[in-house]
Amino acid sequence: MKTNRRGMLAFLTLSMTMFLLTATPTQAEMAIINPTADAYVDTAQPTVNFGKSANLYTRYNSQANRNAAVYFNFDLSNIPRDSTISEATIRIYLKNLLGRSSVVLGVYRATSAWDEGSISWQTKPVGPGPLTSNTINAAPGYKSFEVTNLVIGWLNGTYPDHGLFLADGSQKDYVATFYSNESPTNQPQMVIYYKPPSTSITGPIEGLGMATGRPPLISNVFAKDIRSENATIVWTTDGMTSTRVRYGLSAVYGDFFSLDNAILQHTVTLQNLKPGQTYHYRVSGRNKAGMECLSADYQFRTPPATVKPEDSGLLELGWLRLVGMGLLALVVFGGAVVASFEIPRLRRGEKLSFRFRPRG
Q1: What are the structural domain ranges in the chain?
Q2: How many C-beta atoms surround the C-beta of residue 103 within 10 A?
C-alpha cells in the first residue's frame, strides 16, 4: 500500500499495523423491572407523603437547609436466587434540572421497610452509602446508576431487600425533577443482565440462532465513521433480534439506543457525542423467544474538534476483514479507534493509494 505523508501534520508518525478486533460475546437474560413503589420525601414538609406524585424530586438548598430524596422498591422475585448477575442499573428519567448544569446523586441501601402510601421525611428509612454515585447533566432523558453489587446482595441474602434511595451527593443548590411510576410515560426502571443457574431448551424455536434452541450469537462488532460528535456502531446476529446499544464515557454507560424490529444486520448512529473522548459501548438484542444476546465491552475515541500540537501521538492504520464486504480500515490514535472507512475488494495486483489530511 502506498501512502503520502505530505498532507499529514508533521508531528504525526504513520505506522502500519495489522490487527484484528475480536471479543467473545456473553449470553445473558435481561429483565426490565418497574418499581412496585416509589416516593420522594422533603424536609420542607416532613410529615407529608408524596407516594402518589407523578414527579419525583431530589434537591439541596443551603440557605433553607432543605433536602429531598427519592425512594424505590423493585420486585426481584422473577430473578432466580442462584443467578449470576453480570450487571444491574437503575434508570430514572430526568424531566428538568434547575440551578446547575450537572449534579451528583448517590445511591443508598434502605435498611428498613417502608410503604409508598405513608413514607415521609420523618418516617423514611436510612442506610449506608453512598454505595455508588453518578454525575448527571441537565439534558432531559434517562439517567443511569450502577447497582450490581446491591442486587447481588439482595438475591444472595447478604441483606434484606428494603429498596434503595437516591439523595444529593454534591451539596450544591439545585432541584432535579424526575418522572415517577405514576407517570404514564418515562417510568423508572431497573435493568438486570443475568444468567440463570441452568437453562434447558428442547427443540427448535422460531427466531433462535441457527434454529438450535440456543441464544443468538453476536459477531463483527465495530465502530465506523467516527466523528467528533457522532459514530456508527455495526454488528451482526445469526438470528433475528432487536437492536440495542448502551454507551457512555465509562463501562457504566448511562445512555442507550434501542429499536424493537428484529433484524440480522444492525446499524446504529450515536449522536451528540463529546469530541476527544473515549466511549465504551456494548450491543445486545432479544429474539422472539425472549432470549438475550449481549456483547463484550468495546471502545472508540472521538477525534478532537480541532487538532492541536499537544494532541500529538502515534497514528496507526489497521484493518478488519469483513466477510463478503472487503476491508474496514481502522485509524487508531492514542490507543483508541478515532476513524474508519471501508475499502472495497481489490483485484489481484491492484493498488490503493490514500493520504490523511487534517480538517480545519
Answers
A1: 2-25+217-354, 29-195
A2: 25
